[in-house]
Amino acid sequence: MDADARAQAMLLALDTYAVAHYARARRIGGAAVDAAMGGAPGACAVWGGRGPTDAPAAAFLNGAAAEALDFQEVLIDGRNNGHAAVVIVPALAALAAEAGADAEVLLAGLRTALVANVALARALGRGHRAGHMGFRTTALVAPIAAALGGALTVGAGADRAAAAAALAASTLPAGLLAAMSPEAGAFTADKDLSVGFSARHAVDAVRLAQTGATGPLTVLDGPRGWLPTYGQGTEDAAHLETPPDDAVLAQYALKLYPANFGCQCAIRLALDLRAEIPPARIAAVEVRVKASSAQSLSARTIPSHVAARFSLPYAVASAMLRGRSVLADFEGAALADPEVHAFMERIALVGDDALEAQHRAEGVFPAVLTVTDTEGGRHVRRLTAPQEAQSEDRRRADVDAKIRSLLPAPLADAMLAAYARSDFAAMIDHIQTPTEDTDLCAP
User: Which of 41, 232, 332, 375 is deepest in the core (most CB within 10 A)?
Assistant: First the structure.
């Protein structure tokens, strides 16, 4: 792979590991309840927690933790969005550790899976979330890509890789979005656990394929297959026939702020405007986003950290009042801060059909913020991507700051140094090293 693709695949691995490490160490979300899913002792680290354990358990536990903060990557594509690294990195890291695979082989497997995920996501389209349906994009797409890349990582060969992908597609644990809405108000741990099950599913598919198990090779676009079942009229199998190249890895965007991706542009705009106008001079704020985000991210009651991460009113109010958007703002006592909740009353959320159309065409999550000051002045800012119009130095600084906020200082130093010199072997040594010697699965 070329240098840009290598750097992006390494960055996605580092980001996924750092988020999971933080969530596991603090028992946040699914990482607080998933220990019952531990397996037998094995060669695989549980990031930020105890270990080692076997590959299926490690994939499940690391996948669940990687999703817990909603601080993971997002695919930006007009045909589909969704997450991928939260499934692919835990699954392939576990398989590689169990098989003793070389770091460069693992990196090639990650690249294969991440590129395949784009082709699969484009082929699927958005029909699986239309109307009252709520299949998780991540659950439908990433496990298939992970099984393909995982089989190649362990040296299974092309036929066994095809069998692994077929098995993964035909036996999917298709997660639902039933709890993820302001109306339901549940924001339960199933969100995190679904990703864990998807990562484990990919590992299981690879292990079965290695024993000779097969799945229907027409499972993707054949009758009663994956595309016609979940595509719901938006599928396009042509994307399976023309796989994307390494350039698509740049379409995986990292989050700068620990909230849903639909909040990212609005948070940056809030911080930019707050630097110009102090909170005491802000009379009203209009947050204009795509119409679907105005519905799904509209929560104003904040019973949990997940509700906060999925609330545009909370995320914008917090950023404007505190002048920052960091992990601590979405945890613990910060969620009940009366000043933030009072500031939320100044925020109006508006769904914009034009922004929705832009999202469906380009896959982006744009935002327009309008601040009315206490003297009646209006200040309008628009943003299409969180790092739009920023220098490369600023982009690197943002990544550095994120990783340092998630990992203990010595570990962050070592991981960032390995990333800077493109040393994936050093990075994976840290990823594969158990944090503690205690067996996670001991009675």
Answer: 232
Give the integer Cα–Cα distance in Å for 189 and 262: 20
The residues that bridge with 348 in the sheet, in sequence order, are 286
Which part of the chain is CATH 1.10.4100.10?
Answer: 3-253
Reported confidence tier of residue 442, pLDDT bands at 50, 70, 90: very low
Does the domain made of 3-253 have the CATH classification 1.10.10.10? no
3-state secondary structure of 260: coil
Are the beta carbons of 152 and 160 closer than 8 angstroms? no
The CA-atom distances, in angstroms, between 166 and each of 116, 121, 249 are 14, 16, 23
> Do 265 and 162 form a contact (C-beta atoms < 8 A)?
no
Q: Are 273 and 369 in contact (CB under 8 A)?
A: yes
HEC per residue, 54-87 = CHHHHHHHHHHHHHCCCCCCEECCCCCCCCCHHH
Q: Are strands 367-373 and 282-290 parallel, antiparallel or unpaired?
A: antiparallel
CA neighbours within 13 Å on the CB side: how many for 323? 6
CATH 3.30.1330.120 range(s) for the chain read 261-383
Q: Which two tokens stand for residue 5?
A: 């693709």
pLDDT for 268-301, tens place per residue? 999 999 999 999 999 999 999 999 999 999 999 9
Lowest mean pLDDT among 94-103, 181-190, 314-323: 181-190
Round to whole Å and give the CA distance between 431 and 69. Answer: 19
C-alpha 270: how far from chain center? 23
Q: What is the pLDDT of residues 89-133, one digit of tens each?
A: 999 999 999 999 999 999 999 999 999 999 999 999 999 998 889
Which region, left, alpha or beta, applies to residue 192 given φ > 0 means left and ψ of -120 to 50 means alpha?
alpha
The CATH number of 261-383 is which of 3.30.1330.120, 2.40.70.10, 3.20.20.30, 3.40.50.2300?
3.30.1330.120
Query: Does residue 80 register a pLDDT over 60?
Result: yes
- Nearest-CA neighbor of 299 among 287, 286, 291, 311? 311
Taking the C-alpha atoms of residue 43 and residue 30, their distance in angstroms, rounded to an integer, is 23
Q: Is the entire prediction scored with pTM above 0.85?
A: yes
Tokens of 370: 């309008």
Determine the pLDDT at residue 367: 98
